[in-house]
Amino acid sequence: MTCAWKELLGILPQRIGAQAAFYEAALQEIRLRIDRPPEFVLGSRCQWGTGNITVDDLNYCINAASRYSPWSAATLAQGYITAPGGHRIGVCGEAVIREGHFAGIRSIRSLCIRVARDFPGLSNGVHFSGQALLILGAPGWGKTTLLRDMARRLASDRTVAVVDERQELFPPGFQEGRRMDILFGCPKRQGIETVLKTMTPDCITVDEITSQDDCAAVLEAYGCGVRLIATAHASGLNDFRRRNVYAPLRENNVFDSYVILHNDKSFHMEANRL
Predict the structure, then answer these.
(1) Could you tell me the CATH number of the domain that includes residue 108?
(2) Does one domain contain both 106 and 178?
(3) 165 CB contacts (<8 Å, ≥6 apart)?
């Protein structure tokens, strides 16, 4: 197991980083809320730090993360920033609405920093012999971590193109696969189109299908005969069936197998019976 710990400490005020260091091995999230002490989430339990969080603390984190992320303004408009090391910072505060659409957040009141970790060998129990596989799980259940290891394992003997929109799958310092090509900083649809045209991959991996545009990108890859591995937010197949955004994927029977993650980080596989 590895973690870009130096990069994580680089976005935290020193006093908060010093407290986080006590929980380095088990730390999954750091939650910072104005006028409350820092919360360190360690799996199913949490530990409270000392000293209330201030506006300056939150601004320090946002500014430190933004300096290293060329697409931070675009992702902040969606409510988060990807920090160095692949750590994702979720943001809450006053929503900015323009023409009826969510356009960002101001007057930030709290942050949720999800600690990115790498577990080589995690996917050894996943046996993928079909054309397309979808990893399902709720936020924070380890979809990206599992996808990262699957992509790296497959890239030992075949060409794998990774469309890493926010550089969360393979940030600097994380081990890559021998036959892996990574395109980051590019929206999924354009990214998939690019690697299909230029990299002749055997398999494409893409994280977090969350919109109709993402579904269209996946359908394009599926129609080209390239193997595909992706992730989506759903607690299981029943949840996946209920969500309208995934209707095009279900209607076209894109995925022939699924990996279902559980809250305890375990998982099981199911064949497509939709």
Answers:
(1) 3.30.450.90
(2) no
(3) 184, 185, 186, 187, 188, 191, 206, 207, 208
